[in-house]
Amino acid sequence: MTPRKITINPISRLEGHGKVTIHLDEEGRVEDARFHILQFRGFEVFTQGRPYEEMPIITQRICGICPVSHQLASAKACDAILGLAIPPAARMLRELIHMGQYIQSHALHFFYLASPDLLLGWDADPAVRNVVGVIAEFPEAAVKGVRLRKFGQEIIKALGGKKVHPAFSVPGGVTDSLSENDRDRLAEGLPEAYETCQLALDLLKGWVGKNLEEVGRFANFDSAYTGLVDAKGRVNLYDGRIRIVDAGRNRLAEFDPADYLDHIGEHVEPWSYMKFPFYKPLGYPEGIYRVGPLGRLNAADGLSTPKASAELAHFRALAENGLTGGSLLYHYARLIELLYALERAEQLFNDPGICDTDIKITARPKNREGVGVIEAPRGTLIHHYWVNTAGAIEKANLIVATGHNNAAMNRAVTEVARTYIQNGEVREGILNRVEGAIRCYDPCLSCATHALGQMPLRVEVFDARGGLVHERHRDPTA
Ligand code: MG
Ligand code: NI
Fold first, then answer.
1. 457-476: per-residue pLDDT in tens?
2. How far is Cα 445 from Cα 14, in angstroms, rounded to an integer?
3. 448 C-alpha vs ligand 2 centroid, how far in Å?
4. Residue 268 and which of 32, 75, 141, 196 are 20 to 30 A apart at CA?
5. Whole-number pLDDT of residue 473
6. Domain C-terminal end among 350, 379, 398
7. In sequence order, which residues have a C-beta less than 8 Å from that of residue 279 and are 6 or more positions away?
8. How far is the CA of 71 from the centre of ligand 2 (A)?
9. 312 CA distance to ligand 2 centroid (A)?
10. Does 34 share its domain with 60?
11. Across residues 373-397, what is the average pLDDT?
12. Which domain covers residue 221, as residue numbers?
């Protein structure tokens, strides 16, 4: 038997494009599988020399999907350079636009990207296994999903003025206050949003209940987990301390985000431009950890809102049955976070200070260095800037969610490939599963490469001599 390498291209229903190669040994067993990100990382280089206060505007251009997240992390890094705490209303408004981003991003992921696999089945014809197929089979859920996403976008629009690249979070605060009219109008959307979120949770929980064996088997592996937590150890999406726990959810470390370099290293592989972050004391690859919905829920002790906490209790009871590391649980965790984001938005609407007009502090830079960290929908997002005495960027370091999950995604793809390729035989359904494994992590490839635009994603199988023996191309459907 000749060793082989398998490649899948393009993987559909991901945010952007990428490539997977599967390498077989002489016996036709999976030796290794790699998720490739091929594009040049530009932003850390070409922001050098720019005034620090331009960074929230420049870095939001890294990605058309995550501009709100980059702008928030960037503005927080700038606050650290200014050495100040922003006004309470500005902090609340930043968290509110952040919740708008969570609502639109998580709703998009479930209804457009994940639900075709879950509701129509892994092995459904690719011609119908997409959002159009979901609309045909589940018209009510699909329409509600579109409206839920729009609710999140409306929050972003009300604050940032534009849906895609809002200039809202700036050094020292935010650019605009929230009018009472807008607050009341937005709050009116909450009852329907809760209803749709519950519908999604019921669909997902029903699916998990019927597919427990698959959830336990599919890319279920041990790793550490990471997320921001508040002083009580609960998930905090906007601020807090970075906590890292082991595969059994025991705490390994908890630290101020500004100290991340003491705890997080970045491994480099010659075949990928994307680095592989890891928890330093454990080394690489033992120290790989996962971020994003499953990373956050596994790292934290709980959630601060009542409805999401009740859902988390169900989730824990299920996960603790040997499923803690199941990649498919990302979908479940994501919907619990969607519910949490709705509850946080409601709490913020109800805060008497939310319409306050004291929203920005003007100051001169005090520090030569600043770190800004938030939990973006896909996971922990780090912006770190060093400036000269004139406030120009000397160096920037960005670590994005998809980077933190890089090693875990490779592991997930390898696990799935090993299940579906034996004795050199590629089983039917492998390509859908490889796509599905990556989709659990909701990678944002434009963010991962710190570059604009899309790239091709393909899955190819190669033998030990480098001969291409299997290849998959499919046009992205979303
Ligand atoms: Mg970087
Ligand atoms: Ni992105």
1. 466 777 777 788 777 654 44
2. 8
3. 7
4. 75
5. 55
6. 350
7. 224, 244, 252, 253, 263, 264, 265, 287, 288, 289
8. 11
9. 27
10. no
11. 96
12. 52-350
